């Protein structure tokens, strides 16, 4: 059972994540969208969307640091175990609360605004349920493991993080996750379930960030009017001859 839960299931979910995105992009390019509902309502969206997205950036950044950076590295540069966890707790809870509050506003908006609710699919509802469960379980693990120390503090950097890096190296040690507290195991399983659902939801828009806007040239407009007025054009904006 440990091998099934912590070796087979994670690889199946990530395979679905990769193959599903390829299939979606190949056969459903027109559906590769956020399915934006801003046209129907924007007051709640302006409040909930930034809270959720900036909160999730903090959550993802914290996971990258916590899972991929070995404890020996932070020890080598003089960051103590206690100092690391204080920063992790404060930053993790702040980002988690932002994400939860933002998601609550977005779900409330989706449920109470008629046109937005009508545009909500079954996969949207399933995605919100998995995403909310992942965030809440992550916040619970942060609080229980680093503040309340229920049942004794668990150093995930010596267990879960090591398993995750071994998993990415295709040498997973299932015993590391099997011995982790139930909260961490549930968090990991629900997260992998979310990865399996990802390609079939609006979350695909994460991989369509408009990075090109940062490097695109200025848009230059040409006037068809021969009379440009008395204003002298600025350098670099001289009229283009026909």
Describe the model.
By secondary structure, the chain is mainly alpha-helical. 63% of the residues lie in helices and 0% in strands. Helix 1 (2-27) packs parallel to helix 9. The longest helix has 32 residues, at 81-112.
Average pLDDT level: 85
- Largest pleated sheet: none
C-alpha termini separation? 75 Å
Share of helix among residues?
55-70%
Global Rg: 24 Å
Class from secondary-structure proportions = mainly alpha
In N-to-C order, the SSE pattern is: HHHHHHHHH
Would you kindly provide a brief summary of this structure?
The chain has 242 residues and is an all-alpha fold. The protein has helices at 2-27, 43-68, 71-76, 81-112, 114-118, 122-148, 160-168, 174-178, 182-197.
Any key phrases for this structure?
about 240 residues; single chain; mainly alpha
Topology of this structure?
Blueprint (H helix, E strand, L loop, with lengths): L1 H26 L15 H26 L2 H6 L4 H32 L1 H5 L3 H27 L11 H9 L5 H5 L3 H16 L45
Helix pairs in contact: 1-9, 2-4, 4-6, 6-9
